[in-house]
Amino acid sequence: KPFSSPLAVSSPSPASLHFIGTREYVIQAQRVTKLVNGCRDILVLYHQGELHAMDLRCYHAGGPLLNGDIEEFNGQSCIVCPWHKYKITLAEGEALYQAVDNPTLTPLRTRWCSKGVKQRVHKVTVVNGNVYVTLNDSSEVIESDAYQTEKFRANRFKG
Ligand code: FES
Q1: Among the listed residues 135, 123, 149, the one whose alpha carbon sits nearest the alpha carbon of residue 15
Q2: N or C: which end of the chain has fewer CB within 10 A?
Q3: How confident is the model at residue 8 (pLDDT cuts 50, 70, 90)?
């Protein structure tokens, strides 16, 4: 179930800082979704003492990361998309997968590999007890950009 916007009022801030909620609110909620700047659905997560923000919809097929579990893979905290279990690092939006180099070996030996950054992550700042997000506006195309459309926005809280 999504969390509604916090009731707290944001303090004046530079235009690039988008108010998400009080730090207390975000920590308690652990996951907050917000349409930022009228154009970007993001997910803000609190995990093991750190705040992270990323595009809400999974880069693979638009799955709702809001409902994903967070697990450690290869020493990195990842959100696991509930639709097809793709793993995305919270820190960088990197897509991780396990490769098998030699399928004839038993037991199979796997190693973690990266597909590179597939999910756009955004910067989180805490100012005077309030949490803000600065959108990552790099011009490089990142695969999760494809799901920041009106169609997906209208359905953003559906699993
Ligand atoms: Fe996320 Fe497929 S939509 S893994």
Answers
A1: 135
A2: N
A3: very low
CATH at residue 24 = 2.102.10.10
The domain tally of the chain equals: 1
Cβ pair 33, 14 in contact under 8 A: no
- 56 occurs within a structural domain: yes
Structure tokens that stand for 43 in this block: 């997910």
State the ipTM, two decimals.
0.99
Task: Give me the residue label for tokens 């490769």.
Answer: 99
Tell whether ligand 1 has an atom less than 6 A from the beta carbon of residue 84: yes
**What does the pLDDT look like over 98-138, one tens digit per residue?**
999 898 998 899 999 999 999 999 999 999 999 999 999 99
Tokens of 91: 């820190």
Strand order in the sheet with 94-100: 69-73, 76-80, 87-89, 94-100, 110-117
Q: Cα dihedral angle (30, 33, 36, 40), rounded to 10 degrees?
A: 120
Q: Which of 55, 84, 88 to mutate to test the pocket of ligand 1 (most atoms within 8 A of CB)?
A: 84
- Domain membership of residue 146 (yes or no) is no
Strand-pairing partners, residue 35, are: 41
* Domain residue limits at 109: 18-138
Instruction: State the Cα–Cα distance between residues 92 and 159, nearest whole angstrom.
Output: 24
Ligand 1 neighbourhood includes 60 CB (under 6 angstroms): yes
